[in-house]
From TrEMBL:
<dbReference type="InterPro" id="IPR002347">
    <property type="entry name" value="SDR_fam"/>
</dbReference>
<dbReference type="GO" id="GO:0016491">
    <property type="term" value="F:oxidoreductase activity"/>
</dbReference>
<protein>
    <submittedName>
        <fullName>NAD(P)-binding protein</fullName>
    </submittedName>
</protein>
<dbReference type="Pfam" id="PF00106">
    <property type="entry name" value="adh_short"/>
</dbReference>
<dbReference type="InterPro" id="IPR036291">
    <property type="entry name" value="NAD(P)-bd_dom_sf"/>
</dbReference>
<keyword id="KW-0560">Oxidoreductase</keyword>
<comment type="similarity">
    <text>Belongs to the short-chain dehydrogenases/reductases (SDR) family.</text>
</comment>
């Protein structure tokens, strides 16, 4: 379909398609250890399923609710993967230490857990609820970096942060969601830093599309066309392979066509496109406010 939002690709996807299908031999993840946070429902559950279909050797399901993690595990038991369930809050250092011990050396880490505060104006927000977005969306990345990067596969590992496309919108278009959008903006920049600091670690921030989840319903956003949950799951399987290195540290939407992205490999790799920056910078001389 034609892109409903600005897009670097001519084709826009709402559902999975052949190039990202985890059943395709080119998307095999045999032998890989995969960690998925927020794995008890929604995008996290679908992502765990996708990596199982792709033949991952070991999938570690992380989340706060044991019952939902066990539901996800049950869906994977007939597949080829060994499944571990780790009940932990991603913002709790001690609990995540146990996850790191269970994982050992890992290949792929999907940072999918998130928190969205009740919509409100900043000066009227419940401070604990507002700050919880930063605990889950930002502190969790710091914990993951410090506990897991030392044990990343030295031959190459992948860490993907599930973010929000709404960070590109003006506040009036996502009214009341300051905690979520600002924390997700910071998350994108942190993933850029992690990629820069770790040459053998591929990082990227992934907008999962508009998925009918509890988090979306809690946001109060409505009237948006939904995408299928398998789209981000399959896209992330595709993204975690060597040929995508030109997308390292980029902010990517799963709706973009992967073949058309690959056609722009050199342009994307050598520019600041798909990163968080200040609009208009670097300024041309005529736009330099110091000359006006």
């Amino acid at each position: 379909m034609e892109p409903p939002f600005p897009s670097p690709t001519r084709t826009w996807h709402n559902d999975t398609y052949a190039a990202i299908d985890p059943r395709h031999p080119s998307n095999s993840r045999a032998g890989k250890t995969v960690i998925v946070t927020g794995a008890g429902s929604g995008v996290g559950r679908e992502t765990a399923i996708a990596y199982a279909v792709a033949g991952a050797e070991h999938i570690i399901l992380v989340g706060r609710t044991k019952s939902t993690l066990l539901e996800t595990q049950k869906l994977l038991l007939n597949g080829p993967s060994r499944i571990s369930v780790c009940v932990a809050s991603v913002s709790d250092l001690e609990q995540m230490k146990s996850v790191a011990e269970a994982a050992g050396t890992w290949d792929i880490f999907i940072l999918n857990a998130g928190h969205i505060a009740k919509p409100s104006k900043i000066h009227e927000a419940d401070m604990s609820d507002w700050w919880a977005s930063y605990e889950t969306n930002i502190k969790a990345i710091l914990i993951a970096a410090q506990l897991f990067i030392p044990n990343a596969n030295p031959s190459g590992a992948y860490m993907l942060g599930v973010t929000a496309g709404g960070v590109v919108l003006a506040p009036e278009h996502v009214a009341g969601l300051s905690a979520y959008m600002t924390s997700k903006t910071a998350q994108i920049k942190i993933m850029e830093w992690l990629g820069s600091e770790n040459p053998n670690l591929f990082t990227a921030s992934v907008h999962p599309g508009v998925i009918d989840t509890k988090m979306l319903r809690d946001s109060g956003l409505s009237g948006l066309p939904y995408d299928k949950a398998v789209l981000p799951a399959h896209f992330m399987v595709w993204l975690t392979q060597p040929k995508t290195k030109f997308l390292k540290s980029k902010f990517i939407w799963v709706n973009w066509d992967v073949d058309q992205l690959c056609e722009q490999e050199k342009q994307i790799a050598e520019s600041s496109t798909m990163t968080i920056n200040s609009l208009g910078w670097p300024y041309s001389h005529g736009d330099d406010p110091r000359t006006n």
